[in-house]
Amino acid sequence: MKTINLITLALIIVGGLNWGLVGLFSFDLVAAIFGEGSALSRLVYILVGVSAVWQLVPLFSAFSTNETYAQRRG
């Protein structure tokens, strides 16, 4: 499970950086690398989206715990 969390986190970072470039410079790095509207570009966008959904699980489990950071430290 740790490996998939690291992969999905890396993909979310790639997606975030790409959106930052789009917002700042109107430059889509994924489209520039793989071609605008290409199957590979679409695959990257899909993987980033699925990764974001996957990362909701650890986010919600972190919020659902009743234990605070101070309580864990003792």
TrEMBL record:
Q: Does the keyword Nuclease apply?
A: no
| Keywords carried by this UniProt record | Membrane, Transmembrane, Transmembrane helix
Where does the chain cross the membrane?
Answer: 6-31, 43-63
According to the UniProt entry, the coiled-coil residues are none
Query: Any keyword Membrane?
Result: yes
InterPro entries for this protein: DUF378
Name the domain of life this protein comes from: Bacteria
Name-wise, this protein is DUF378 domain-containing protein
Q: What is the lineage of its organism?
A: Bacteria, Pseudomonadati, Pseudomonadota, Alphaproteobacteria, Hyphomicrobiales
